[in-house]
Amino acid sequence: MEFRIYYEDTDAGGVVYHARYLAFFERGRCEFLRSRGLSVRDLAEAGHVFPVVRLEIDYKAPAVLDDLVRVETEVLEVGRSSFTMGQQVVRALDGRLLAAGKVTLVCVGPGMKAKRLPEEVLRALQEQGSREGAD
């Protein structure tokens, strides 16, 4: 998934504010699922919500105003009620790695109680190969 860096994404130093990468990663995860036929909204309406329970991020180089960046997403691990994804933000122009992360989400239902991943989510997560531009 590619998008441009806007002024609202930057801090007083003119670089992307560190917390914005969390939003970039979330967009990437949503588009990853969408590219496999799943809507986060539809899943939530069906009672399947996926809060982040663990996140690691390494900042490698700054993104700046007007950069075109790409979020790349891959599935690292799938459990009974959770899954872990590897994500990175790269500068689209030169492929330079800007941030790399690993995020674990758990499927919860009413009362925020963990539950098994729905079959359609399992299928989407187990699909082989990355879809460049949609991830």
CATH class: Alpha Beta
Characterize the overall form.
elongated
What is the helix tally?
3
Low-confidence stretches: 130-135
Largest sheet: 5 strands, antiparallel
The residue fraction in helices comes out at: 10-25%
Note down, in words, how this protein is organized.
The protein has 135 residues and is an alpha+beta fold. The protein has a single domain (2-126), classed as Thiol Ester Dehydrase, Chain A. It is 21% helix and 31% strand. It has 3 helices and 5 strands. The protein has a 5-stranded antiparallel sheet. β4 and β5 (97-106) form a beta hairpin. The longest helix has 15 residues, at 20-34. The radius of gyration is 15 Å and the shape is elongated. The N and C termini lie close together (5 Å). The model is unreliable at 130-135 (pLDDT under 50).
Give a quick summary of the entry:
The chain is an alpha+beta fold. It has three helices and five strands.
Keywords for this entry:
alpha+beta; Thiol Ester Dehydrase, Chain A; 3 helices
Question: Mind sketching the topology for me?
Answer:
Layout: E1 2-4, H1 20-34, H2 40-45, E2 52-59, E3 68-78, E4 82-91, E5 97-106, H3 119-126
Antiparallel strand pairs: 1-3, 2-5, 3-4, 4-5
